[in-house]
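@channel anyone free to eyeball this complex?
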Amino acid sequence: MAGDGGRLLFSLPKEDRILALNLATGDIEQVRRYTGKTTAVGFGADGRLYGCQPGARRVVCLEADGSMTLPAERLEGLVHNHPDCLTCGADGRIWFSDVRWEGRDSGLFPQLGYSSVLVLEKEGRGPWHLRRASCDPRIPGALQISADGATLYVASNPWQAGSKSEVRAYPVDADGRLGEPSSWLELATGRQGRETVTAMALAQGGALLLAVSAASGGEGALLVVDADGTRRAAAYVKFKPTSLGFAGRRLERLFMGSEDGRLREIHDLGLNGWSARPERPDADAGPRRR
Amino acid sequence: MKRDFAQESFLKIAPDSLEAEVVAEGLGLCEGPVWVAGAEALLFTDLAADAIWRWRPGSGLEAVAQPAGRPNGLALDHTGRVVVAGWAARSIWRINQDGSHEVLVATFHGVRINTPNDVVVGPDEAIFFTDPSGGLFNPGMAGDDLQRYLDFDGVFRLAPDGELTLLLDDFVYPNGLCFSPDASLLYVDDTRRQHVRVFEVGPQGSLSEGRVFFRLVGDEPGAADGIKVDEEGNVYVAGPGGIQVCDTSGRLLGRMRLPGHVTNFGWGGDDWRWLHVTTWSGVYRLRLGIPGLPTGTQAWRT
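replying in thread with the prediction:
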């Protein structure tokens, strides 16, 4: 999901489409088709929309003119693995979890032997460059960069069964290099099995919003956690969240997508979201909520 | 070399002594083999290396074009110019006699076409090509614009005057295509449906409704891909396990089991009996019992 002024964009990879919810009217329109099964999307600091295409093993830019470009194709000359989630930094970097799919090496381009966090970056108007950012053995899942770019939060991938389910915090230096991570939040194993983070969003002020799903059953939760790891709020829901996103002119509205194919608005949290995308005049905002 | 599903008549095509000789190996995804008579050379594409290679017996490989827009199928027109199904380039382009590259078509009614896969030149010099969208989503095969614009995976005819006509739009993944020896029929295979359809060719290259001609057999690695006919009209198609051959009625005559994942093939040599076969990693050649159809300046001569 990604806020686009007066609209919320959300991707339906199985339908190969991106739809937009008009926040003022409640209407839904198709804004993109033939998306290449794009999953996670996010606006970069350059105002462009980036998306993960796990099947095609790339992160693409869905340009405003309707075209689709590829910022960088190879990691040190090799086709990387399957992008799972992405987060865009205010410095222009695009971080994404790049997951190796076990048992899927029969194609022309063998997968890399590891899963990791990769980063797309460029100097000024130069070409994009792809770099491996993390080197630890844990498979990355949902991720979120902090507003100041100094911390990258990375959740364990739900596919990595048997390992501790947690969110790790990586310090990020001025050159975009990751330091050693610390365990920022551990998730429980409840009556419905291991809980994992399926999506993240960042609120202004630094609090992290985590969509949590249990391994089995149909329940989940929304956690609000301050930057120091303190759990500020928790809301338990009877569905499995899959995506989170703020929208609105001031990113004042929070939405959650779920495994049952529904899009829900989360009310009364009193939080505004953060986005790397620069603010812009929005002609589509419609009347503000009071 | 192993053969299976073989009818007795298959021995005429693939005798007991048949062996696959290595032409080139250690390459990327090879495609589009076409023999250049007179130059005694084989041209083929290498999508991974983004090249069009020329191979001459005894001389090895040299690049004809690199980078080449990640090309796929190749054909020769009647003057011997190389016509390219420019897969990632999303166009049909040609290498002219002076070595220059010329884009022949890239749009249909102003909209960018998909990723042309294979190409053949008809007796009237029209260019027929398949245009599946799958190339837009293949890992490692990127171009400058990856967005699909057309709502179909088509088969087109590009007339000598530049007019582009959509002939077929109901394939799931149109891939290889070829004419019968008398050009009265056009065979087109569908990689997803794993079958070959045949169409009668009418005036101006128009096509009849068509019918399913052959369903590929086997569940080994491989899918319906390159397709050609020999001078007797037998139809050869790359598919599971290697190359499957059927007669003019669509009856399976046999299957040639080849190493690697076969993508395409084409006849060549002085007598047009050498079948050059491209795979995911290289090129082989086989000496078959029935010649194939000449290409380029020797094509369509009665």
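from a first look: Chain A is about 0% helix and 45% strand.
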